[in-house]
Structure formats: structure tokens, C-alpha cells
Task: structure prediction
Amino acid sequence: MTLSADLVSLHQVDSQVRGLKSRLDSAEHYVGLQERQQAQLKARIDEIRSQIRQHQATGANQEAESGSIKSRIESLRVQLNTSTNPKQYAAILNELKLLQTQRDDVDELTLSQMQQVEDLQAKIVEVEKLLGERTKVLDAGRAELNTCRTEVGDRLAQLDRERTAAAAHIPQRDLDTFNRAADLYEGEAMAELVAVDVRRREYVCGACNIELPPEKYATLVSNPNVAVTCTSCHRILFLVVVSSSAA
Result:
């Protein structure tokens, strides 16, 4: 076989290999994305639960403070009822008013903490619902990934062997050119040299549609053992041979 034919054979196998790997990579990327989103939702739930514990602890402290104030108020009321000194009576009464105001403030803060706990608990329900939905999507994605690995695995191994065998016939310099173009254009390393008008010697690259010098066509026809590349996109050019039966 000529170099041009060997390159075309390599291209056919390489395209299949890259296509299967792309399918597998897409499935793995999708599962990875779902796993990250699931982890974010779990982290969000942990964060909310931590906030709930903080509010509950603060509320418990405020309830204890309210109880302490209440005990002091009850003690002062006893003193107030037994007080016979006008100045002492006025001082106790003034302290009672201050403690009542303080207790009302503490009770209001306690109620606020309780409300925030309820709001956060409702938020957890929402996030847990999202987590359940995300988990279902993730499970389906993992199942699809396993199916993809099963379907692609054996075929990919076979094509990898075929690609290695096809590449063995190609000189290293030309193989490097092929690989660079394949990496750059997602496996589309080769392009047909299209004869727009043979009489006028007008030719274009079938991939980028840039006009090519006639010498490119002449080299491909006269020496199929030379790798000819497009002057613009640098894909390796080839000619489509039409069989006489097809003609």
C-alpha cells in the first residue's frame, strides 16, 4: 500500500477510536458533574443542620436567661409586697420594670431563634428533595456509564490494536503530522483534495475550503508516498479514487 492509503486506513480507525473514547469521556464527565452537584447539596444540608444547632443552642441559653430573670422578678415582687420604706419600694419597682423589659427582649430573641430554626428545617426539606432528585439522576448516569463501558470496552480494545497496527506502517514524521492534526481537529486529521475545475487547475481543501496550489494535486497524483498537507488547516490531503465500475 502507498503512504496515502496507509494514512487513510489509519484515519478510518483513529476516527472510530476517538469517537468511542469521546462517548465514554462524555458519560464519565456527566457522572462526575452529577457527583459534584450531589456533594454540594449534601454539604448544604450539613451547613443548614449546623446553623440549626447554633440557633437551638442560642435559644436554649436565652430560655435559661429568661428563667433566671423570671426568678429574680418573683423575688423582687415578694420584697415589694413586704417593703415599708418608700425609697426601697421605688428602687425595687424600678428594677422590676427594667427586668420586665429585659425579659421581654430575651423572650423576643428566643422566639426569633425558634422561627429561624423552623425556617431552616423547612429549607432542609427542600434541599433533601433536590438531593433525592439528583441522586436518581446520578444513579441513572452511573448505570449508563457502566453500560457504555461494557459496550465500548471490547470494541475500543480491538480498535486500539488495529490503530497500532495501522500506525506501524507510517514513518514517524508523517505519523506526528497526522497526530497533531487529529488532536487539533478532534480526529479529523485528513481532508479530501477536491478538484473544482481540473482544466483550470482549481483545487480546494475539502475541510477548510481554502484554494490549494495545483502542485498539491500534482504531488498526490505523481507520488502517493509523500504526505501532502493543506496550506491553511494543515490536514493531510488525500484523493478519492473513483473505481471504473462506479464510473
Observations:
- Helices lie at 3-82, 86-167, 172-184, 214-222.
- The chain is about 75% helix and 5% strand.
- Residues 3-167 form a domain with the Helix Hairpins fold (CATH 1.10.287.1490).
- Strands lie at 190-197, 202-205, 211-212, 236-238.
